[in-house]
Write a structure and sequence with these properties.
Elements: H1 2-12, H2 16-29, E1 34-40, E2 46-51, H3 58-61, H4 76-81, H5 91-97, E3 100-106, E4 113-119, E5 122-123, E6 135-137, E7 142-148, H6 155-160, H7 164-181, E8 186-191, E9 197-201, H8 207-215, H9 217-220, E10 223-226, E11 233-240, E12 250-255, E13 258-259, H10 263-276, E14 284-291, E15 296-301, E16 306-309, H11 312-331
Parallel strand pairs: 1-8, 12-14
Antiparallel strand pairs: 1-2, 2-7, 3-4, 3-7, 4-5, 4-6, 8-9, 10-11, 11-14, 12-13, 15-16
This protein binds adenosine-5'-diphosphate and magnesium ion.
Protein name: DNA mismatch repair protein MLH1
GO molecular function: ATP binding; ATP hydrolysis activity; ATP-dependent DNA damage sensor activity; mismatched DNA binding
Family: Belongs to the DNA mismatch repair MutL/HexB family.
Length: 332
């Protein structure tokens, strides 16, 4: 049983950045305003992830890493109205199947925090010294996850991830993107090797201010705002103008608050820019789409984290049209 759970977990958690993405989404759902990530060996050895969100009630720790345990779907109606992607109850379970996971959490107005240690989806009854699990400890409001020895029990996967610098870059890239979508949240990331902060964003009041902090002020001067309200969905974003090119393309697509890989949209936008930029430049694209959750199916394939949008073609067409209008309007 543990083996099949581990295989399922390995499809949700592909690398350290997948852990960070799941934890990020949970922290944002928990109304965190400050998220601090610390990494050893690019997250392969240790991911320490701290938020100041609402915390987890001690009674819920017992089932926290049970598969399909979620507090976000008490009723079917909730699933439709909640507007979040985080309702599968699979992330923490998956993480606990492929790592050593310690959770320390405290609700507001509690006198102390609780710390729990998980293995294979379960609370380990007690540690070697006989201390209880979960145990009380001092703390502050919020939740800290410590994920150690990722893929210790999946040697092939572990060996395939040998470049900790590359894993580190994946995580920084993820934090950069989320910090644009959530400008009021402060993000930081550092390596535990040297305790130096490599990435920090303060809480700011707009996406544009956050883009300036993360990608540089020069870029913000080249951006065009897009985002008329359509009838069936809404979107907002910033795209670089047709005379500007980055060294590497940046595509930031969010749907209902979650970063997604949207290959078909990426392709369409990229060929649009290619047709406008004779030299084939690389654009900066940040698009935040809000779709009625009824029209989304995020559960098609948990492993691929693909979403299925009804009327996807229609939405892409609308987005493209509005981008093209903006680009041609301003490039003449
Ligand atoms: P899901 O997000 O799909 O509900 P997860 O496995 O990601 O499933 O998380 C399980 C549950 O743990 C969440 O529903 C939530 O109640 C709780 N939780 C996880 N992370 C946090 C956090 N950072 N702060 C508060 N509660 C959390
Ligand atoms: Mg989640």
């Amino acid at each position: 049983k543990d083996v099949s759970d581990r295989i399922a977990a390995g499809e949700v958690i592909l690398r350290p950045a997948s852990v960070v993405k799941e934890l990020l989404e949970n922290s944002i759902d928990a109304q965190a305003t400050r998220i601090e990530v610390s990494l050893l060996d690019g997250g392969l050895k240790t991911i320490r992830f701290k938020d100041d969100g609402e915390g987890i009630h001690p009674d819920d720790l017992n089932l926290l890493c049970e598969r399909f345990a979620t507090s976000k779907m008490t009723k079917y109606e909730d699933l439709l109205s909640i507007g979040t992607f985080g309702f599968r109850g699979e992330a923490l379970a998956s993480i606990s199947f492929v790592s050593h996971l310690t959770v320390t959490t405290m609700k507001e107005n509690s006198d102390f925090a609780h710390q729990a240690y998980f293995e294979n989806g379960r609370l380990v009854p007690s540690d070697i010294l006989g201390a209880s699990n979960p145990k009380k400890c001092s703390g502050v409001k919020g939740t800290t996850f410590i994920v150690e020895d990722l893929f210790y029990n999946c040697p092939l996967r572990r060996r395939s991830l040998s470049n900790s610098k590359e894993e580190y870059r994946f995580i920084i890239d993820l934090l950069m993107k989320y910090s644009i979508r959530y400008p009021s949240v402060s993000f930081s990331c550092r390596r535990l090797e040297n305790a130096k902060y490599d990435f920090f964003t303060p809480s700011v009041d707009s996406e544009l201010a956050s883009i300036g902090n993360v990608y540089g002020k020069e870029l913000t001067e080249e951006l065009l705002e897009v985002g008329p309200l359509c009838t069936s969905f809404s979107f907002h974003g910033y795209i670089s103008n047709a005379n500007f090119s980055l060294r590497r393309p940046q595509y930031l697509f969010f749907v209902n608050g979650r970063l997604i890989e949207w290959q078909s949209l990426k392709k369409a936008i990229s060929s649009l820019y290619n047709s406008l930029l004779p030299k084939g430049g690389h654009p900066f694209i940040y698009i935040d789409v809000t779709i009625d959750p009824h029209r989304l199916d995020v559960n098609v394939h948990p492993a691929k984290r693909q979403i299925c949008i009804l009327d996807e073609e229609y939405i892409i067409e609308k987005l493209l049209h509005s981008i093209e209008t903006k680009l041609t309007m301003t490039s003449s």
